[in-house]
Amino acid sequence: RRRKAVSRLSVDSARVSALGGPHAYTRRRAIYYGVTLFLLALIQTTLLPLFPLFGIVPDVCLLFVLYIAMRDGREVGGTVGLCAGFLECALGVTGPSALPILFFTVGYGVGHLSGRTLPRSFPSYLILSASLCFLRPAVTLAAIGLAAQASAFDLTVILRGTLAPEMLVNFLFSLPMYP
Length: 179
What we know:
Layout: H1 8-18, H2 22-47, H3 60-72, H4 74-90, H5 99-113, H6 122-147, H7 155-174
């Protein structure tokens, strides 16, 4: 007798068909991600500034993009990243910037790396979140460098006062978001 192999695709398709078809499942997931992202952006702009850790408000929207990209892959991670970047720009978290491009790149890159290059495990999540926590302060440093005059730009003060706490706070907030 031949045993019928049950693939991941058949299990997912059975779950999707039980929920009302593939389009209904995609719509539900998109609504869930959109509402969650909007609530996280509101929390990031209203509640978290009241209780800053080391004077830094964590970027929970970027950490949500990391979570979704590790969980659902590069296409969904890139799409959620692009939406998160536009949402942060629209809510005035950082003002007009290149955040949608950065968030899209993070979502797509993490989604591509997780599962293909790196296994979906906690150590690989730590590697990706630590590298992400270095990327966000690099964008902050570039913004400070563009805004400051050359004489007022002291890298050691900026590193100790802004960049190191930003890396630490974002990394601490990324730990409970492991998918």
